Amino acid sequence: MTQHIRDVSDVELAKRIKELKGIAPAATFEMILKKLVPEDKIQTVERIISGLSQEDEFALLCKMLNCCSSITPLNQTPIVGDDEITPDFQATFHAGSFLSNMSSMDAPAFNCMIEVKSTEKFKFKSSRSDIEKRRRFAARYNLPLLYAIRFSAVKDHAFWVVISADDLYDKNKIDTSAYVDSLGQLLFDNYSIMVNSSYTLVRRYSKSKPGIGEKHEALGELQSLELVSNGGKVYRPSNNDSLVLAMLYNIFASTKSYTETYNGESVVYSGFELMRFLTLVDAVYYLNNLISDADGNKYYEPVRAMANLDSPTNPTMFITRSVIEGVIRRINEACGDFFLFGILGDHSARVDKLMKLMKINDAESGEARQQ
C-alpha cells in the first residue's frame, strides 16, 4: 500500500528524496517518488529537486575548473532563530590566470559563502529581506557572501552569473547581461577561445579497425586527426589530444566539410567557422556532457555524479580544465596560432571588486581576533 509523507514541508521532502536520486536507478527513483509523495505534490517536489541539483552542478563545475581548494555544502535545515538563513556553500577559491601563466595553486585564497539560485527566465529577482538574512549568517563567520545564479534558459552553456550579495541587494534584480562582467569570470578563470579559420581539420575513420575513442555513426571509428595550415604544414597530435580536439570540433561549427570514402576507410576534410568562439567554462561543461555510458545514458548528471564522487569501484570521471588547457598549449606550441584567446568584459573592475571583498574579509577577521 502506498504511504505518502504529508507531515514535512515540500522543501524538506525534496531534500531527502534528492539524495535517493543520486543512488537509485531511474525507474526505481520514479517508483520511490510516487510512493512517498502525494500525486498533487509530485510536480512541485520535482521542481524543487531540479533547483537543488543546480547546487551540485555548481560544486562539480568548481571541481572540474580546478578553481577551488575547498567547497563544502552547509546544512540549511533551520534549528534555531528565524532572522538568519544559511547559504548553500562555504568555499575557498584561488583565482589563477591561464593567460598570465599563473596557476590557481599560486593564487591567493579567497574565502566566502555562496548562495546558489537558478531561474528559467532571463531575469532573476530576490527580496532584500531574504538577501539580508543570508548576509547576516555569513557575517557571523566574517565571510563575504556571493550569489551564483544559473540562467537555465540559456541552453547548452554553463551560464552562471556570480555577484556579491551587496551588489544584488543594491540592484534587487539581475539579468543575463551581467554574465560578461560577472565575478565568475575571475573566480573560474574564464576566457574566450577562437580557432584560426585558416586551418583545415583532417579526420580519418575506419569501419574495420579499432579507433582512439570517438565513433561516427556512418563512418566508423576515428583513427587519427591532423591539422593542416594554409601553407601545407601538417601537425598530427597524440591520440589523446586528437580525441579531445575531435570532441571540441563539435563546438566550433564548420563552414564546409568534404568526405572521401573507399573500402570502409574515410577521410573528412573540415574548415572552421570564422569568428565563432566559446569560453573555457563552456568547453569543460560541453565535453563532460558528451560522455555517455555503455547504454547511451548521459554520464554527467549532477546529482548522480556527486553521489559517486567517492565510489571505491566507479568514481565519477571528469574532463577537467587542465586536460583541455594541456591540449591547447601543446597544439599552439606546434601550430603557433591555432587557438586564439580573449578576456571577457572589464577584467580590472572584477579584480578590484574581488580585492575589496578580500580586504573586508581580512579586516573583519582581524577585528574578531582582537575581540
Fraction of residues in β-strands: 15-25%
Q: Rough shape? A: globular
User: Could you give a short account of the major beta sheet?
Assistant: 6 strands, antiparallel
Structural class designation:
alpha+beta
Distance, first to last CA? 59 Å
Tell me the helix content. 25-40%
**Could you tell me the number of beta strands?**
16
| N-to-C order of helices and strands | HHHEEEEHEEHEHEEEEEHEEEHHHEH
Number of helices: 11
Contiguous uncertain segments of 5+ residues = none
Give the averaged pLDDT, no decimals: 86
**What integer value in Å does the Rg equal?**
23 Å
Description:
The chain has 371 residues and is α+β, with helices and mostly antiparallel strands. It is built from eleven helices and 16 strands. Strands 9, 10, 11, 12, 13 and 14 form a six-stranded antiparallel β-sheet that branches. The protein is globular. The model has no long low-confidence stretch (mean pLDDT 86).
Architecture blueprint of SSEs:
Blueprint: H1 10-21, H2 26-36, H3 39-64, E1 68-73, E2 89-94, E3 109-119, E4 123-125, H4 128-140, E5 145-151, E6 160-164, H5 165-171, E7 173-175, H6 184-187, E8 192-195, E9 200-206, E10 215-216, E11 220-228, E12 234-235, H7 239-249, E13 257-262, E14 265-270, E15 277-279, H8 280-290, H9 302-307, H10 321-335, E16 339-342, H11 347-370
Parallel strand pairs: 3-5
Antiparallel strand pairs: 1-2, 2-3, 4-7, 5-6, 8-15, 8-16, 9-11, 9-14, 10-11, 11-12, 13-14
